[in-house]
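Moderator note: this is an archived Q&A kept for reference. The question asked for a predicted structure of one protein chain; the sequence and the answer are reproduced below.
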Amino acid sequence: MGDPVLLLGLLGAALLIALFVLYPVIRVLTYPSPVDFLALLDHPRWLRAIVNSLVMTVLSTITACILGFVFALALTRPDVPGKSFFRTISILPLFSPPFTVAFSYLLLFGRLGLITHTVLNLRVDILGWRGLWLSQTISFFPIATLAISRVLENIPPSIEFVAKNLGANDVSVFRTVTAPLARPGVAAAMLLVALYVLADFGNPLIIGGDFPILATEAWYQIEGWADQRAAAMLASLLLVPAAILFLLERRWVGRRLYTTVLGRGVRGERGPTPPGLKVFLVAFCSLVAIFVTLIYAGIVIGGLTRVWGADWHLTLRHWAEAIKRWPHVQNSLVVSAGAGVLAAILGFVIAYIARERSILGSTLLDAGAMMPAAIPGVFLGIGYLLAFNGPPLPLAGTIWILILALAFWSLPFAYKTAAAGFRQIDRSLEEAAGNLGATSLRVLIDVYVPLLRRTAGVAFIATFVNSVTNLSITMFLVTAHYLVATVSVLALVSDNRLGVGAALTTLLLALTFGALTLGFRWIGPDILME
């Protein structure tokens, strides 16, 4: 309390979290009346949406984690051929717009799909729960791959060698050693993937067809009926399982069950992969890699084809139409850059304050900074729409509501990234600066900022990429004057202008991969793991 810099930072950060995180949440939860929730029983479609959301969460989580586990196993074996290629494939969907997979598979496997209709001469309809299941599996298996691969890498090879020396074969080693040690990480990965699947908005909107889920039903209530009360009620139902999944995931991670603690001994190198397992890993990962590669091939070809499904001659007409929508792309860049700067600064300041647990309120500040991670994008979008559509802070219709919503949605990642950076710096540097008369502000500017510039860069780039590709929040907050690229793509697909939509999506992909390339050159390969 005697340090005015820390006190001001604490009060300012707490005020911002209360205003831009807690207040929108409270507005959504209190906007519907108890009668509105009781009316849920009179709407069979909404009841179907609840069941469908839970079923798709279970199905997509299981298949995404199976793919993620096999990929993680391949990436952590030293002698699997093509490992670098598989590693690249396993992270590509993370940096694409949320509807990319569904849109591409609609082009490839839909009624006029390149593969199903043109190549195989089949009349199939990918719309519905099957197409959604496939799209969500491919979209979110990279999350499981990253989480599980870290667990497998932390299992010392010496444990496997001991089991083999005691007579266990390769199957027994996997069943009695590798699988049990990886189980906590797999469970945490499943919880994390389930959280993303439950909050998914782009894939169901594109490929879900007449398969209602809570996220899309909330959007339809606003778009089709202008019924904000019903939308808030449906979004509130979405928050309950999302919050439960988030708390469970935090519990697993907080227990630190990813590491293996050993006594003395040498870690050693992993032994050769059994031939049968190696063949299986290469074949399985190659098949998944084909599906992932088809995503981007379908989008690129769609932007260059004259009439999809009817006239396959190449043309640049769709690109000419897409370039006319450059103001939408420019809005996305401005909004994402603003959100990235704000999230990086705020995450840095909160991590600096909360690193000292003796400061009154630091625990609450930590919880407040992590709260948006448990809030689905649809819920947050509706919350900002209700909270800032009038007094006391009328931000609706301005670019600031987009920047603030995306910044606070990305705050948990920025905060945890900065907090990890602070933990890597010895406190003796701060103590030495304090002994020389430096204030807390001077220590922050002269000591921590120079040392953590790369960390802040990771937070900025991650927020920028997530904001450029965001759809679940921007759908509720854009106006005709501040239309962003993802919403523009969705409007084109809804109007059946698939070629222009594919060209604009290709442009978005180029921008996100360009930002990642710059980050890779500036920060290094660690940015992908972060």
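Archived answer notes: Confidence is low (pLDDT under 50) at residues 256-266.
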